[in-house]
């Protein structure tokens, strides 16, 4: 008789995550779904801190629940995650960080909801531990069906989700093993774009993402160039799988309003000049290729300024901007005519000659000062008189008087 496949396979890539690994494994042992409906596939990527022994201890204590394999260290999570995916037998796949953990009812609730809704991808509510920041926009409500244009889906591109295994295998979705970081983003983006239905569960703390106390998570150790390679890979998937339009723009807006400008914050100033020049050059190319004007115009002013300076190769001005913000924060708006502009030091700087549009915050909120008390018709009449006076000065008082006599 053929052994029945489990409902869900939890895939864990493990590399030197003690003591956090213990809490991760313990959260799986206590899942309410029952061991007959789940399996844990743990791939030990050359650990040397006791993680190997901890996996063996749990596998021995819970026979049939854990499947563990060991391989030489690969330098990133992509290769062990790919191998775990190949070994998994469940109808659904859940990718769990080896320093993260699940709520006791997480798997049962997720599988039941995905079956009920026939979801291809299901996003469970995630919370941060030990100061880990997790964007919460996508978790505003439980929803059977969400997309890039009606939710914060573009901000949820990590692989911390439940995926229908058939979706992954049918489309040949894999992590790119040449990426040190963000290999999950192009994978997840491909799954979301191919999915017939993406759902959200926001009714329970399903997935607890942990920031290690020494901040040694790979997502906090990777450098700017590694991150840019991950962003580029995600945009290659986006270009292949979408046509120009709102969904594509929503994903682009996420990267250019947050991910890319984050590479040009205070730590950038500590990089050697040669590295700074390379980062600026690559960001400029990336922006030129992937950030269309409509997306660029809608970005916050600090992001627009950083990207524009990078495209122009203005390294010194970029460093000055970052240092100025460190001391002053974001610039306060200043009114010029009917518009508000962020009053950065380079606003209307003659040498840089940056267009005012880069600094524009939006329309000024009504007339300033005494103008609030003057009715609109009188303001229009006053403007007409001022225009007439300017014409008089331009054409000469005599000519203006001759015109009046006629």
From TrEMBL:
CDD domains listed in its UniProt record: Glyco_tranf_GTA_type
What InterPro entries does the record tag this protein with? Glyco_trans_2-like (IPR001173), Nucleotide-diphossugar_trans (IPR029044), TarS/TarP_linker (IPR054028)
Which chain regions cross the lipid bilayer? Answer: none
Residue limits of the Glycosyltransferase 2-like domain?
Answer: 9-127
The record's annotation in SUPFAM superfamilies points to: Nucleotide-diphospho-sugar transferases
Extract the Pfam families matched here: Glycos_transf_2, TarS_linker
Q: Which residues form the TarS/TarP linker domain?
A: 231-321
* PANTHER family found in the cross-reference section: GLYCOSYLTRANSFERASE (PTHR22916), UDP-GLCNAC:BETAGAL BETA-1,3-N-ACETYLGLUCOSAMINYLTRANSFERASE-LIKE PROTEIN 1 (PTHR22916:SF3)
Q: What is this protein called?
A: Glycosyltransferase family 2 protein
């Amino acid at each position: 008789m053929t052994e029945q496949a489990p409902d869900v396979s939890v895939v864990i890539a493990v590399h030197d995550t003690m003591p956090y690994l213990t809490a991760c494994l313990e959260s799986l042992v206590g899942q309410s779904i029952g061991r007959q409906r789940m399996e844990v596939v743990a791939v030990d990527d050359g650990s040397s801190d006791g993680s190997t022994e901890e996996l063996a201890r749990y596998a021995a204590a819970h026979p049939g629940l854990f499947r563990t394999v060991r391989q030489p260290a690969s330098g990133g999570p992509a290769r062990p995650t790919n191998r775990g995916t190949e070994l998994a037998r469940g109808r659904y796949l859940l990718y769990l960080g080896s320093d993260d953990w699940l709520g006791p009812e997480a798997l049962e609730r997720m599988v039941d909801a995905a079956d009920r809704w026939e979801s291809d991808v299901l996003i469970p509510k995630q919370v941060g531990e030990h100061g880990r920041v997790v964007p919460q926009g996508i978790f505003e409500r439980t929803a059977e069906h969400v997309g890039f244009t009606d939710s914060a889906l573009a901000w949820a591109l990590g692989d911390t989700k439940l995926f229908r295994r058939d979706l992954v295998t049918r489309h040949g979705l894999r992590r790119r093993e040449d990426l040190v970081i963000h290999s999950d983003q192009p994978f997840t983006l491909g799954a979301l774009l191919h999915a017939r239905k993406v759902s959200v569960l926001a009714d329970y703390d399903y997935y607890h993402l942990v920031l290690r106390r020494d901040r040694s998570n790979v997502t906090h150790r990777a450098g700017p160039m590694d991150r840019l390679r991950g962003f580029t890979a995600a945009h290659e998937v986006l270009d292949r799988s979408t046509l120009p339009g709102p969904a594509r723009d929503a994903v682009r807006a996420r990267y250019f309003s947050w991910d890319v400008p984050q590479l040009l914050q205070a730590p950038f100033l500590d990089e050697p000049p040669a590295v700074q020049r390379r980062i600026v050059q690559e960001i400029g190319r990336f922006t030129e290729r992937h950030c269309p004007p409509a997306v660029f115009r809608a970005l916050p002013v600090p992001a627009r300024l950083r990207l524009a300076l990078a495209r122009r190769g203005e390294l010194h001005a970029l460093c000055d901007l970052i240092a100025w913000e460190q001391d002053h924060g974001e610039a306060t708006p200043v009114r010029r005519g009917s518009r508000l502009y962020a009053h950065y030091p380079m606003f209307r700087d003659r040498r840089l000659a940056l267009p005012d549009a880069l600094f524009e915050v939006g329309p000024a909120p009504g007339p300033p000062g005494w103008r609030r008390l003057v009715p609109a018709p009188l303001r229009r009449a006053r403007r007409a008189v001022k225009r007439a006076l300017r014409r008089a000065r331009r054409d000469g008082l005599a000519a203006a008087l001759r015109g009046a006599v006629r």
